[in-house]
Amino acid sequence: MTNEKAMNILLTSVGRRSYLVHYFKEELKGRGRVFVSNSSELSPAFRVADGHTVSPLIYDEKYIPFLLEYCKKNHINAIISLFDIDLPILAKNKQRFKENNIEVIVSDSQVIDICNDKWKTYLFLKENGFCTPETFLDIDVALKEIEAHRLKFPLFVKPRWGMGSISVFKANNQEELVVFYHKIRSEVHQSYLKYESAIDKEHCVLIQQMLTGQEYGIDVINDFNGFYQNTIVKRKIAMRAGETDCAQTVYNEAISKLGESISKKLQHIGNLDVDVFLVGNKPYVLEINARFGGGYPFSHMAGVNLPKAMIQWLENKPTDKSLFHYQENKTFQKDIQIVEL
Description:
Elements: E1 9-12, H1 18-28, E2 34-38, E3 51-54, H2 63-73, E4 78-81, H3 86-92, H4 94-98, E5 103-104, H5 109-116, H6 118-127, E6 135-136, H7 139-147, E7 155-159, E8 169-171, H8 174-188, H9 194-197, E9 205-209, E10 214-222, E11 228-240, E12 243-250, H10 253-266, E13 270-279, E14 282-289, H11 296-301, H12 306-314, E15 331-333
Parallel strand pairs: 1-2, 1-4, 2-3, 4-5
Antiparallel strand pairs: 6-9, 7-8, 7-9, 10-11, 10-13, 11-12, 12-15, 13-14
């Protein structure tokens, strides 16, 4: 890690996450700058950053050379991505940036693969004894389970590599299941999800058991060596386009222990955004994302300060555990503001 006094950070695929730009700027306190990049200039976060650039598309062969050159030109010390599709590309090129004294704050490729590929997520959770909804990669297998009355409707049908609520449908019967399955396959191959889905075009759709219970979002924080720091638990109150819109911070021992167990098995770095359903008193894991999630602002508003911890880790400074403590029973909702681009 760098010991330089100046600390410049680049947030890639920044989109509308202006709040993260503010969080990092507040902690740098003028002794460093926050830069952002996105493949589209229609990014509100460009307005609040110290510097911004429109990058090539993530899967463009020019993407990594472009970022590397931009970092050199602007003396950037660390890169943090905010988008799932970005993570595997950056993970594969960590060493290339490190050779130029630029830290890419992303988990190893194996960890990113487990998180981005929801079939591998399911296998990881099952192999490590975590509760998770039954999931099927083959529609014929799912239909046989339905016929044998071991699997019941409604069922969720969604992309194997996906995010948010993109192309996610609830099937209430067999006819809908078959239609949605083929619809998603078609949509995936016509969207940006086609790149990761190209790994296995014939098995790019999942069929998943629907759970009934209270949904939670958790932030599982590890340091840059993969050591566990804390789990922040939030009860989801409202969702919008697959992202948490309103939530309340709470303490739940079972979910907190779940977060710690996942941390020690996965050994990710930084934040892990996890979706959990509490069915009775048993927590079930739906998805895991190895990045700042849309629910992180609720943790931050309740007292957590991961951006400050990240800056201290980059500077090899000791980090106070209080940065990962949060106040319980705090309710927050995202607001809508209109900005001129």
